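Form P-L/3: holo structure prediction, ligand zinc ion.
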Amino acid sequence: MTQAQGKPPLFDLCGGHPALDFVNSLDERFTEDGPVERLADYGDLLRFAQQSRLLDVREARRLAGSVPRQAAARALRSARQLREALASVLYSAVDGRPPADGDIRTLEQHFHDASGHRELRWEQASQSPNRRAALEWHWGRFSAHAELPVWMLALAARQLMTSDALERVRACGAESCRWLFLDTSKNHTRRWCSMQACGNRMKARRFQARHA
Ligand SMILES: [Zn+2]
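OUTPUT (holo model):
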């Protein structure tokens, strides 16, 4: 059993996309004392998915209460494997290097795996909410599976990495941080993961250097 409720929000979601916030959950990747693991257990993974609005409260609670310990541990390992392949490919892209083929194969496997656990359903038209009849993807019988948050993250990552938005992925300009974020600023000039955290710290450092 794992506990998804009762802890305050843990994660700083300044990356602006679940896949980027996910990579940032291994914190302080580039410091001498790092890295720091923010996904310490399966409950953390559920909290992250819930805070990122991939899972709703009900889904997170259901998984927290029903997933056996071994399946939870397996899902956490799978999540970290996905995250590190994403990190490797995204930091390569940000630094203008081609990603390693092994990491691309790992992503491919996760993307296929996630897609393979959805079911196609015919949804009837309905008055409220107002919608037309359509074919839709659902998690269906897999919605109580331990790996659900991993699959959701894989599909979010696939959406980002196979779209033009990939060009807008940046690493924070603070060398000790390098958190990933999606630069949606008008002139594409965002430099920091967050002004509060890194922007102000770097400004203060430059100020000190000038006035030393
Ligand atoms: Zn930063």
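COMMENT: The mean pLDDT is 92.
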